[in-house]
Amino acid sequence: MRDVSSTPAGETRLSALLKTARPHLDAALVSLTTVADHYARLPDQGLLPPLADAVRSAKQVVGPLDPILRRSDSFLALERYFLATPRRILIVSQNNAELRPTGGFIGSYGLIEIGPDGLALKEYKDVYTLKDSPRRVPAPAGATMAGTYLQFRDANWWIDFPTSARTLLQFWQDLEQPAVDGVVAVDVVAMGELLNVFGPITVKEFDTTFTAENLLERLTYIVEVQMAPTGRARKGVLSLLANELSHRMMAMKPDDLLATSTALGKSANEKHVQLYFTDSDTQSAMKEGGWAGAIDPPDDTTDLLAVTNAMIRAAKANAGVRKTIDYQVRLATDGSADTTLTLGYYNDEAHLRGTWRAWFGNYLRVYRPVGTQQLTGPGEAAAAGLMTDEIRLPAVTRAFRVHRGDSREEVIRTSVPHALAPGRASVVPRSPLAAGTGTQPLMPASSVSHYRLLVVRQVDLENVPTRISVSLPAGWPVSGVSAWNRTTGEALLVSNHDGAIELSTPLNGDVIVDVETVRG
Question: What domains can be seen in the chain, in order of their start residue?
Answer without folding.
Answer: 13-71 (no CATH), 73-289 (3.40.630), 303-518 (2.60.40)
